Amino acid sequence: MIVAERKPFDEIKTMLSGCRKIFILGCDTCVSVCMAGGKKEVGLLASQLRMSFKKDGREVQIDEDTVERQCNREYMELVLDKLQNYDLVLSMACGAGVQLLSDLSEPLQILPGVNTRFIGMTPKDGTWEERCRACGNCVLGETAGICPVTVCAKGIMNGPCGGTDHGKCEINSEQDCAWTLIYRRLDKMGKLDNIRKDFPPRNHLMQIHPAKQVHEAYKGE
Amino acid sequence: MAVSFKNALKSGDFIVTAEVGPPKGTDIEEMKQHIELLKDKVHGLNMTDNQSSVMRLSSLAGCHIIRQMGGIPILQMTGRDRNRLALQSDLLSASVLGIDTVLCLTGDHISMGDHKEAKPVHDLESLQILKAIKALESGSDLAGNPLKGAPRFCSGAVVTPEADPIEPQMMKFEKKVRAGAEFFQTQAVYDLDKFKRFMDYASRFDVKILAGIVLLTSARMAGYMNQYVAGISVPENLIAEMAGVPKGGALLKGIEIAGRMIRRIREEGIAHGVHIMAIGKETAVPDILQAANL
To answer: For residue B257, which of B245, B272, B273, B246 has the smallest C-alpha distance?
Structure first.
């Protein structure tokens, strides 16, 4: 899933200065699961803003809604009409959602309410860890299901660097060394030869931005 | 002194290398003083590459100056700041400037340095830089395009004998050997009995190993390295020895310890040589060599 965190309240409030009619649009998929931009977070932010503007003596109308997925055109078309008479929309979706909304509602101003961080997973409640860099050349089959591109701070492919220390990474003592993790799991799997192989330099062709993919069945449309 | 580092490695002599750090800025006087002081006392002088991720004069320019001054430079190259185009280009440039010895490194993480918000590159890591050198030597670049004139290098790498766990470190060491590393400069070692055990393993390979000697300058520095620097462990008795000297005597004690260690490494044939890192105290290197009877 995409992991995001809500922008600081003061930053959001500064972005909204001068507006009288604001719509906050949440997204009920990834950013809802990571407690940054789902229905509950939209409600909390809207209340906080209403109270803050009232305290400042400013009259600002704040309305809210949350859609299933802001990165999907079908879901977005259901809400476009109701956004038309607002000064701006604060989107609580990831960067992809903010951009689809901006494309579909031009020239309405859409502001981002969250900072999109990474593709991650949930090792325990309330914690998210980055586990995929969307590099386009998955090597997890070779590295015991631990991604060196993501989990190693340097993304190196041929074993630990000199910065590894008792299984931890030089960037901070809390961070596990990816290659120590890979080594230990491959050892248990009886597949240490996977580390003995030379990995060539990574192919960054799949990383040319912006990436695009069209399903076979839709080609030519 | 030999005319090239490769010849020095072949000579069978006990090899001594030291390290010079380029300045942050264009004032190269102090760097030149260090080169002048050391160039005839060692077989090769490493020039660090934005060491600790701190932006400085380039290693390539520094090596060029070592050569101009009659020394033998060892070009440190990390993959942190340059992609494969820039690294190969700099290798060709080094070659035409007569710089033919390269130490291939992955590089410290960018967040350890003074431009923490910069983009870390890591397009090639140490092993892949070694392989890039082999490709260039064979007359083509990493993409397989032919070169008009191929360079010749003596390439080296690093190894951390006290890494924990040691097994993946050994696997990487062997990959570097297979990729053509001719010499290794190790991370600092202080416990020579432990280092001897590493050398029992490493000496099976046809490469020269230079034991890393980092000059201890105070008990505090020794304790800090022991606790915080990856892959370095300073035994308690050495920290106590540093702490036991009267105020102002720590540097002399550090020189004595370094000299003593080098003497033992040489006399017992533990390694093929030493790489002395006197970080910030380059002027102490001749004293260390004297203490080592070199």
So the answer is: B245
Q: How many of the other CB atoms lie within 10 Å of CB of B117?
A: 6
**Cα separation values, B62 from A158, B48, B276, Å:** 30, 9, 18
Give the model confidence (pLDDT) of A196-210 as tens digits: 999 999 999 998 999
Q: Is the pLDDT of residue A78 over 70?
A: yes
**Pairing between strand A21-27 and A88-91?**
parallel
The CA distance from A129 to A132, in Å, is 9
Q: Measure the CA–CA gap between B103 and B153, rounded to whole angstroms.
A: 10
* CA separation, residue B36 to residues A95, B76, B239, B282, B288 (Å): 56, 19, 32, 11, 16
Q: Which of A158, A172, A175, A184 to mutate to test the interface with B (most CBs of B within 10 A)?
A: A158
A116 to chain B, closest Cα gap in Å:
18
- Chains A and B: how many Cβ contacts under 8 Å? 93
The answer to whether the Cβ–Cβ distance between B109 and A154 falls below 8 Å is: yes
Query: Which residues of chain B neighbour A155 with C-beta distances below 8 Å?
Result: 122
Determine the distance in angstroms separating the CA of B27 from the nearest CA of chain A, rounded to an integer. Answer: 31
Rounded to 5, what percent of chain B is helix, strand, coil?
Answer: 45, 15, 40
CA dist., res. A49 & res. A88, Å (int) = 15
What is the rounded CA–CA span in Å between residue B233 and residue B252?
Answer: 21
Judge if ipTM > 0.85. Answer: yes
What is this structure's pTM?
0.95
Q: Residue B46 gets which letter from DSSP? A: E
3-state SS class at B213:
strand
Give Cα B17 to chain centroid, integer Å.
8
Across the interface, do A183 and B165 touch by the CB < 8 Å criterion?
yes
Neighbours of B25 (CB within 10 A): 8
**Domain boundaries defined on chain B:** 14-159
Give the containing element (helix H, strand E) for A177: none
Tell me which DSSP letter residue A49 carries.
H
Rounded-to-integer distance, Cα B169 and Cα B113, Å = 24
Answer for the pair B101, B147: CB distance below 8 angstroms, yes or no. Answer: no
A192 neighbourhood in chain B, CB within 8 Å: 171
**Yes or no, beta carbons of A196 and B158 under 8 Å apart:** no
pLDDT digit string (tens) for A139-154?
999 999 999 999 999 9
Contact by Cβ (8 Å): A195, B171 = yes
**CATH no. for B14-159:** 3.20.20.220
Q: How many whole angstroms separate alpha carbon B186 and alpha carbon B202?
A: 11
B105: closest CA of chain A, how far (Å): 9
**pLDDT in the model for residue A6:** 98
Report CA torsion sign: B234, B237, B240, B241: negative
Give all domains of chain A, ordered by start, each with its CATH number.
2-118 (3.40.50), 133-207 (no CATH)
Q: Do the chains contact at A196 and B127, CB–CB below 8 Å?
A: no
